[in-house]
Amino acid sequence: MEYNEIKVLHEMLVEIDIPHTFEQMFGGYQIRLNANVDAVEHDGSYGRNQDLIEIMGGLTKEENEDESVLGYLTAKEVFKRFKYCYENKTSVYKKEN
Length: 97
Description:
- This protein is of the alpha+beta class.
- It has one domain (4-88).
- 33% of the residues lie in helices and 27% in strands.
- It has three helices and five strands; from the N terminus they run H-E-E-E-E-H-E-H.
- It has helices at 4-15, 61-66, 75-88, and strands spanning 21-25, 28-34, 37-41, 53-56, 69-73.
- Strands 1-2-3-4-5 form a five-stranded antiparallel β-sheet, covered by helices on one side.
């Protein structure tokens, strides 16, 4: 299976120089922003069959109370969260109103 959405996320992060790692994992890929924020799209991730991304970290405070991961996200949705976390040096995403 091709995991294209996480490759799009990688390109978006490179484009604005957000430091991260991009590695193969479990037949797919992992992007690690820091020790507490990462995205995966691989054989066991939530959303893989729809070519969508799962994240750990980058969740809102409310999301983090219910779950430790959030799946079924597009590259654009993850990028917005990761950009916020990077710029604010946090692993918690705060939605803008």
